Amino acid sequence: EVLTLSLLMYPVLRSFALQLHSAITGSYVPGTHSIAFINCLNEQIAKDIARAIMDKKLAAYVNILPKSLALYFWKGELEESTEILLLVKTRTSKISELSDYVRSIHPFEIPEIISLPIDQGNPVYLKWIEESVPRD
């Protein structure tokens, strides 16, 4: 039982240890923040989703990138379309909540919501993300 409890607590303990290390040393812990990529059908949908994300305080910053050509397989057929890309800067701990929320409002049957951890960057900018997105 103790081993099971210890294993279940590991992510919580690790997160706490990383936060403590960061607070004491003032250094950035790689992976604390992430960039999520979300594709949208058009500019209006992209703006609506970006605003909804910001209203929920699930991100510090959202870029809306112009149209790009997309090729993909859908239901066995090669498809081609134009899409708008959102780049969402947030806490890594918010990715699951962000993904759930976007899936609930996105018009695509299977919206693209993927993320990559931020390994390094401008420390002042990363601190600003931290301050802009509330903790869990």
TrEMBL record:
Similarity field: Belongs to the CutA family.
Keywords assigned by UniProt, alphabetized: Signal
Single GO biological process annotation from the record: response to metal ion
Pfam families: CutA1
GO MF annotation list: copper ion binding
The organism of origin for this protein: Hemiprocne comata
UniProt xrefs under SUPFAM superfamilies: GlnB-like (SSF54913)
Name listed for the protein in its UniProt record: CUTA protein
Signal sequence annotation: 1-17
InterPro entries according to UniProt: Ion_tolerance_CutA (IPR004323), N-reg_PII-like_a/b (IPR011322), N-reg_PII/ATP_PRibTrfase_C (IPR015867)
Matching PANTHER family: CUTA DIVALENT CATION TOLERANCE HOMOLOG-LIKE, DIVALENT CATION TOLERANCE CUTA-RELATED
